[in-house]
Amino acid sequence: MSASGKGLSDRRLFERPWVFIRGVPEMRFLPPEGPAEIAFAGRSNVGKSSLINAFLRRKDLARTSNTPGRTQELNYFVPDGYSGEDGDIPPLALVDMPGYGFAKAPKEKVERWTRLVFAYLRGRASLRRVFVLIDSRHGIKPNDEEVLGLLDKAAVSYQVVLTKCDKISARDLRQRIEDTAEKIRKRPAAFPDVLVTSSEKAIGLDELRDAVLSATSG
Hints:
Strand content: 15-25%
Number of strands: 7
Order of helices and strands: EEHEEHEHEHEH
């Protein structure tokens, strides 16, 4: 099954079980390129693992922790039921990227994660889009600006996803969406539509699934 073929066109892809296949601490451990890849990036306390679990309808696929920065590798997830051999590869792989901006870890380890992420963004031809998660209560912070700048420089398509929208008033959320859209409007690699989600309340998950399908089908 090719990355652009059958299996990417509807949400049923996210109803089947997904499995963790590999944690990648260095570029040399990346799986062979084949399926289209989408990646989730965000600050260490943005709720990335919780959103991935909700997105894939699983409770514990992506590891969640009260300690920000627990994700220290590029973690790969694919829909179950494919052998991985030629003609039977998964149509899509999801990559959970290490959190940035805050991590209770030695400086040298954080720098190593950062180098890994930058190398992946610059060198992975099968990467179709990065979904950058931003806490809707706080908006785009300087660390986020740095990552958006890196994605622009690497010419990697990305889309902003506001998380924890249930933790903010409707009026403040509307303003946050407008502010975020304005901040990314002139960024060359940014997809213009801002997505709004809550993993706890299951808000915006189908819209996010549709965005993933759109980014990887073509």
